## 1
Amino acid sequence: MVIRLNKFTVCFACLIFLFFFTGCEVKNALKEVDRIIYTVDSGPILPELQAHEVYTITPSNITLKRTGIYSNTEVYEGEWAFSGDEALLQELFTIAKRKDCSAYSRVEPEDAPDGGHTIRLTVVYADESECTLIYDPGVTYKGADELLDKLKEVLNNLKSHPSMAPK
């Protein structure tokens, strides 16, 4: 039995073939990371000591903005810029770029602790899309340990530390 293919059938088959390969290639493309935002909200302490800290980390610098949660705060408020270790920053951004947000899965604790601070880790991509991991007390994320550990290493190895008192 001889099967005859007309031009339309061949073109259609080629288009489907190209569609599938193009779709896979785009899906696996890595996004460029613009900045990483690390937010810490203090846990159950006296209201006047509760703080909201936002670290904005780019490949070239780090800023910290700290505010008190209540109007009668005793928290040193302000905004500071400081430098970090370039090699550690490069490693952090490489790790952040390597995984898509879907690679992280939230793991709830069996028995949540009473209180504790809340952390938000947000990776902001060049197209302004975001991947946010919210670490409520006791929560972890499967697949995110390397990213969180490198972020903490960057913050613990700053070249210049901000003053605790505002300028």
## 2
Amino acid sequence: MAAEATASIVIFPALVMGIIIGLIELFFVHSDEQGMGWLTHGLHGVVAAMIFVFISMNIGPVSRMVGYPLEESFAINLGVRILLGIIATIKVKAAAAIAGKASGIGEKLWHALAVGALIAAAPYVWPFIDPLLPAFLKF
């Protein structure tokens, strides 16, 4: 009987990248939606970014959790990450549209696209950020 290779869930890198991307989104929200409750809207974005990045960095385990295990291959993982980035971009624009509905102010399209692209690229960017962390933060 062949042993099945299972990928473990990546938690710390997903949290770090989620916080970094969430803070970038918070800065974008502050610059785009000044004076209209940008902090509460931005904090919502930080949590959403952390969830999206967690899924992006854990495609195999998350797909098994929801009952649809995906084959581990670069093409499938990249396709799922691109789809996840598109969904994140739509979520950012939708949240900005709801928050700015009364005044016609919303988040710029390129800000939403940047957040979506960062979420999709998070697993590929992590190896460059990991060496920059101090030793006590490496788990």
